[in-house]
Write a structure and sequence with these properties.
Elements (H helix, E strand, L loop, with lengths): L2 H12 L3 H8 L7 H13 L15 E6 L10 H14 L5 E6 L7 H9 L5 E5 L4 H10 L3 E4 L9 E5 L1 H14 L5 E6 L3 H16 L6 H4 E4 L4 H15 L8 E4 L2 H13 L9 E4 L7 E2 L2 E2 L1 E4 L3 H16 L7 E4 L2 E3 L27
Parallel strand pairs: 1-2, 1-3, 3-4, 4-5, 5-13, 6-7, 6-8, 8-9, 9-12
Antiparallel strand pairs: 10-11, 12-14
Helix pairs in contact: 1-2, 1-3, 2-3, 4-12, 5-6, 7-8, 10-11
C-alpha cells in the first residue's frame, strides 16, 4: 500500500479529510488532539503505523521535568547540555517544549500532576528525578514518558542513561592496565547513578583479585565542585601521614573534581602525572588542568536527548511495546594526566623535592 492509499484509507475510516490526515502523519502543529488520536488509532489498528517513517514525531507538545539547577549552565552543565540535546533533536519537528523544575527526591507530586494533566502535555521527558512516586504517577497517567539518567524500578517506563556501572568498571580497569594498584577514588555519591559507578569500580577490583577497602580506596564528597574535592583529598593525605604510601592514581568523579585533586597534589609539591596520575569520568568540560591534558572516560551526555526522543517515538508507534532501559557506553580519551607505572613501583611519601639535606 503506497503513501497516498494509506492516507485515503485512514481518512475514509476516521471521517477526517485527506489534508487533516496528511498533516497528522507529517507531525504538523495545526492539528487537534482529537484528530491525532483518531488517525494514530486507525493506523495502529490497520497495521499501517509500522510503515510510516520513524522520522515523524506525531505530537506537538512535550513537557521536560528536571532539577531546577539543570536550567542554568553555571549550576549543572551536564543536565543543561542534555536539555540542549533534546532541543536539537526536536528542532526538525514542530514541537513546543515546556519546562518544569522538580527536586531529585521528595518531588512536588501535586505540581507534577498539574503539569502532566494539562491537555497540552502530550508526552514527557523526566531528567534526573529519582523520586519513585513521580515515576509511578507518570506510568499511571498513560502518556508517553521517557526517563533520562534515572530508572523506573517498577519497570513501567522507558529510560535512557549512561551505563554508569560499566563506565566505573572500565575506568578503574584502565588504571589497573597502566600498572596502578593503589588507586584513590574521589567520588560524589549523592545519587543512585553514582552508586552504580562505584559498584562498577568494586567489580573491577574483584576481577583483578584486589580487595576494595573503603578507608584506603574511597573518598566521598557531597558535590562535584573543585574546592570540596581539593579539601577532601588534602584531608585524606594528611590523615594517612608522611610514612604511609600515597596512591599512585586518583580517579575523580568529574572534571571539576579532578581540578581539585590536581590543586591538592600541587600544593603538596606532587606533580601530575609524575608522582600521582589523575583521571576523570566526565571528560567534556575541561581538556586540560594546569596545562596537563586530562585523561578521562567521556560519559554520554549530548546523545541522551536524541536517544530519548527516539524512545519517545518508539512509544508513540508501538504503545504496547515492552518498556526498555537503554544504556549508553562511555568513550576513553587518552591524554597526559595518567602515566604507566611499573607493577613493582612504590609510591613516594609526601616530599618537598628539596635535596639540600643531602648536600655535603
Amino acid at each position: 500500500m503506497n503513501g497516498k492509499l494509506k492516507i485515503r484509507e485512514i481518512a475514509r475510516q476516521t471521517g477526517l479529510s485527506i489534508s487533516t490526515v496528511s498533516r497528522v502523519l507529517a507531525g504538523k502543529a495545526n492539528t487537534s488532539a482529537e484528530a491525532r488520536q483518531k488517525v494514530l488509532a486507525c493506523a495502529q489498528q490497520n497495521g499501517i503505523l509500522q510503515g510510516i517513517s520513524s522520522g515523524r514525531l506525531m505530537l506537538n507538545n512535550v513537557m521536560v521535568f528536571a532539577p531546577q539547577r539543570a536550567f542554568d549552565v553555571r549550576t549543572d552543565i551536564f543536565y543543561y547540555k542534555v536539555i540542549q540535546g533534546i532541543t536539537a533533536a526536536l528542532a526538525q519537528h514542530e514541537v513546543r517544549i515546556r519546562y518544569c523544575g522538580l527536586e531529585e527526591e521528595h518531588s512536588d507530586g501535586a505540581l507534577f500532576l498539574e503539569k502532566m494533566s494539562d491537555p497540552q502535555t502530550e508526552a514527557a521527558l523526566i531528567i534526573g528525578i529519582d523520586d519513585e512516586h513521580i515515576h509511578t504517577l507518570a506510568a499511571d497517567l498513560h502518556k508517553p514518558c521517557v526517563l533520562i539518567n534515572c530508572s523506573d524500578r517498577q519497570m513501567r517506563l522507558d529510560s535512557v542513561s549512561p551505563d554508569h556501572q560499566l563506565i566505573g568498571e572500565y575506568s578503574a580497569n584502565y588504571l589497573f592496565q597502566q600498572g596502578h594498584s593503589h588507586i584513590l577514588h574521589l567520588q560524589c555519591l549523592r545519587r543512585h547513578t553514582m552508586e552504580l559507578r562505584l559498584a562498577g569500580i568494586r567489580q573491577a577490583y574483584a576481577r583483578h583479585h584486589i580487595p576494595f577497602d573503603d578507608g584506603r580506596h574511597l573518598v566521598a564528597t557531597s558535590g562535584f565542585g573543585s574546592e570540596e574535592a581539593e579539601q577532601a583529598l588534602t584531608t585524606y593525605i594528611n590523615a594517612i601521614g608522611a610514612h604511609a604510601p600515597l596512591p599512585t592514581a586518583v580517579l575523580a568523579g568529574g572534571d571539576y573534581m579532578a581540578v581539585g585533586a590536581v590543586k591538592a597534589l600541587n600544593k603538596l609539591r606532587l606533580s601530575v602525572p609524575g608522582d600521582v596520575s589523575v583521571m576523570s569520568t566526565d571528560g567534556f568540560n575541561l581538556a586540560e588542568i594546569h596545562d596537563v591534558p586530562l585523561t578521562s572516560v567521556q560519559v554520554p551526555r549530548d546523545e541522551l536527548g536524541y536517544e530519548a526522543i527516539q524512545l519517545l517515538q518508539r512509544r508513540m508507534l508501538r504503545a504496547d511495546a515492552p518498556p526498555c532501559n537503554l544504556l549508553l557506553h562511555g568513550r576513553l580519551a587518552v591524554r597526559a594526566s595518567v602515566r604507566r607505572v611499573s607493577a613493582n613501583r612504590t609510591s613516594p611519601a609526601v616530599s618537598t623535592h628539596d635535596h639540600r639535606l643531602y648536600d655535603e
